[in-house]
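hey m, so remember when u said the tokens were messed up on ur end? i reran from scratch. heres the input so u can diff it against urs
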Amino acid sequence: MKEETITLNTQEQKRAMVLNRIQAGQLSVAQAAGVLDLSARHVRRILAAYEKEGPSALAHGNRGRKPAHRISEPVRAQVVDLAQTKYQGCNQQHLRDLLQEREGITLSRSSVRRIVEQAGLAAPRLHKRRVHRRRRERYQQEGMLLQIDGSRHAWLQERGPWLTRFTAIDDATGKLAAAVFREQEDAAGY
């Protein structure tokens, strides 16, 4: 029988150390269960397999195997070939639909996207990124636009009532054109 060398990950190495301490009599199964965050029954199962098979019993049984539901290489190659030739220029959603309707290849949209991207085929048309915010250009000449705003605040602190300050600023130069205080924000202030 050929013996395989298995590299254990960090969790499996921790399990091996704890199981060795159980075998040395330094830990009970219940204490090991608390350390490993497993049930005592599961620790006994792992310990039995560890004693029988050694550290390889701690590695997952599917390690190194290809998934059973993996898309076969001939189907992948066919999808890539069709994407490059017959259905060149189609987006990935349309490619998936054409593969299903005309070729009898039923795949999910994400599988088609993954296969096409792994083959290095970019999407035929990338959407232009929309500009979120764009600053408005200032007017070229002074006096073309005055921006006016009112701000209610305790301008006089405790010495007087709350007032609203109306300020007019020239858009082209940023200069203060006018300012006035009023008791409240109203049309007369603007």
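this time it looks ok to me. Helices lie at 10-23, 29-36, 40-53, 73-84, 92-103, 109-118. if urs says something different then somethings off w ur setup not the seq
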